[in-house]
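Quick board copy: two proteins, each given as sequence then tokens.
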Amino acid sequence: MMNAVRVDPSNTEQARAWDGDEGAHWAANADRYDRSVADYQVRFLEASSIDPSDRVLDIGCGTGQTTLDAARIARSGSALGVDLSGEMIEIAKGRAAGEGLGNATFEQADAQIHPFEAGGFDVAISRTGAMFFGDPVAAFTNIGRALRPAGRLALLTWQPVPDNEWIREIATAMAAGRELPTPPPEAPGPFSFSDPGRVRSILTDAGFREVSLEPMTGRMYFGPAAEEAYHFLVGVAGWMLKGLDADGRSRALGALRASIDAHESADGVTYNSATWLISAKRAP
């Protein structure tokens, strides 16, 4: 639990979620979450440009797949993964131990304020984990401080909701005809880095240069068959049912199942998705 880890006040709610029920769901479904974004993994690692001797910092590492992949590439260097979730960090440590990857380490930490070694890393990476900071400028200033001068940054973030069929269809189904509350675009959440102008402003203010965003598309995988994907997505999006009566819940879950059935194929249940591959360098 987070009570032993210092968290910036602006990240208190995120810590409560990620070191609570949300993080527990990710930990219990680690392989499924990794598989869901597998279409992006190779290109993301290529863009990270990790060299064999690099020291890599993985922000919001979750259960550790990206950290472990980085450690395999940086075989004479190292990879440190940090995350708010204690349960996910324990899964990551177990994976590293199981593979005998001694150059991969993990720490439960709030990357916005964690005292990383100044200039201690050559590259910082984050696969869909960089969008949840209460104060993103402060967070990326701290991450930039941890990089050597001209150190590299590589992030994978979501493009806007209308470009992502998976969240659009899931939210429409679970709304059951209601207007679900939409958080402000600057609020911490999966789509807070979807606006390229905001991303450039945040990273520039945090001391990064040569900020670029490359659009990518891929398939989000949610399970080998409709029944399994349905139970998984109810766990992911069940919070959207809040406030519905029994009839509303029934309609919402029926609509979700119909959408899942329509997206089932020989390749499993998949939806279209769109991301940004963000690259930048710390100012020299």
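And the next:
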Amino acid sequence: MLVSTPLIDYEGLAFREGEEEQAIPGRLAFTLVHLRFEYADGVWEFPLARLTLDENANDNLVFYDDETSWWIETADRRVLQDVFLCRQAHLRAQARNLRVQQESRRSLKYALYFLFAFAAIFSVAWLMVRGAENFVANHIPPAWEEKLTDNVIAEYPKIFILETNDPRATIVTQLVARIAATLPASERQYQFRAALIDRREPNAFALPGGRIFVFTGLLNRVQTPEELAGVLAHEMAHVTHRHGLRKLIAAGGPYYALRLFISDQQEVLSTLSAGSQMLVGQYYSRDVERQADTVGWHYLVAANIDPRGMVGFFELLTESENADYMPSMFRSHPATSERIASLNKLWADSDRKTGFVDLSAELKKP
């Protein structure tokens, strides 16, 4: 006894090529040799051997009869598994290709969903990290920062061998005091102290709490006190915005830092000091360096010092960027030309371009 396989029909449309607006609704089904399309006024049959299977721009399946220029379209993707369709070798291969394409699109869609979810989670986590970092950094007292710096100096005694006989130390001290005196009230909590280190690199760096160290090599390079003031203002901006402290906290992890914050002071200092080599290395991100440039620029203007001295110092660096004594900290900074361009824009946008103090004359006063 023969048992016939019941036909499965699918909702669809039929239309001649170029006459899509006159599409006829109906239902399609497959037999051993035909695609049957039944509509309100009758039935059409299209030989399976003449049909090709593809997908249109709407992701619907379309069969095309090249001899009659008729298209049969359906959105029902069960068609790809129809037993009669799959008996035709060419349609079976085309259906397989469409299934592979569909799986690829589905995989891509899931991948995009995953990436979107990951980006959202990462963004939230990043905001939480920054929030925790800011909370801890903003609540650690300046006195703790000073003790942290004392720990760093004690840990690296060979680095902090101070030059005490150089008379130029007085100039550095005077410039730091002049800038510090005009800082915003919220940033006057630091007792800035400057010292010289006898090294040939044109370098300077600041540690948390207000300690600024200037290499004698930098003093040998600068040509005007305004250039030196530009370097000092930049380093003071690192202190007032707690860049070094934030770097240590970020490296230690916000959760751990928050947990330490509610513990005793010594535990906080000990933990932060464990990463003190990061402070000595002075590798800040480019965004942080740009911020220190901008903040330092405004410090100079407030102190009645021509801020173009900062530009002058960077122009000196462009002359030695390939020299052996170019400090590694400047190689990690934003490109010197980029920093000069940013500072020149600050000058172009500035409302004040005259009336700055003559530092050369000022520093000669007893």
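Board note added afterward: The two ends are 122 Å apart (CA to CA).
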